Amino acid sequence: MRVRKFLSLAVKVASLGLVLAPMSVAYAQDAAEGDLIKGKGAEVYLVVFHQKRHVVSPDVLTGCGLNFGMMKTLDDAIVTDIPTGAPLPSAEQCKAELARAKSGPKDYCEKVKFFEAALARYHTEYRKTDAKRWSSLKEPLKQKIVDAEAKKAEAQKGCSVGDNCAAAIANGAAAPAVCSGVCSKQNLKFAGHWSCDNAAAKACSAKSAGSCVCGCN
């Protein structure tokens, strides 16, 4: 069934005037942002913000400006370890997500989410490196984890300065409910402190985004 599905896909691709790249015997060991990847199966994925997004058809693939010559063939175990995101059902959506993968996070708070996703992925991959087969990946993954943790911590500093604006907080009892909602949007938690009378809060008011600021971590 899998062979039949793959051959059917190959026929569709050939009908679009594309040449199906030969399967490589030596598998790639990594997938970067914006890479087109696959395992042994017929499914083809685009890597966006450390998730694999299924490109649902050859029409979507070509409409996105991609082709099979760009594809990396990875070991199935590596493909499995990359978290799965929503599929890409149209060329327009594929283009938008490819552009997002290439440009990277747009602000500090999106960087926090980006590096959290990276850490989830790298820790999953690292757990299998105890096996002899994956030992060559252990040190590079360890360094990726260290780098991602440092970059996440740096991004959190920027995120907490300008992106924690809240509506007016009446009193201390009201702060947890207000600030929990503000912080959760960044995948962070309320740190227990807030202010309606400091430079950050005044910056919030100046932007008409709120009159108080929450501490998140």
The main sheet comes to: 4 strands, mixed
Structural class: alpha+beta
Mean pLDDT: 81
Strand content: 5-15%
N- and C-termini, Cα separation:
49 Å
The SSE order reads HEEEHEHHHHEHEHE
Total number of beta strands: 7
Question: Could you name the ranges where pLDDT drops below 50 across 5 or more consecutive residues?
Answer: 1-27
Helix content: 40-55%
What topology, given as strand order, has the largest sheet? 3-2-1-4
Q: What is the alpha-carbon Rg in Å?
A: 22 Å
Shape: elongated
Tally of contiguous helical segments: 8
What's the number of domains? 3
Oligomer state equals: single chain
Keywords:
alpha+beta, disordered N terminus, 217 residues, 13% strand
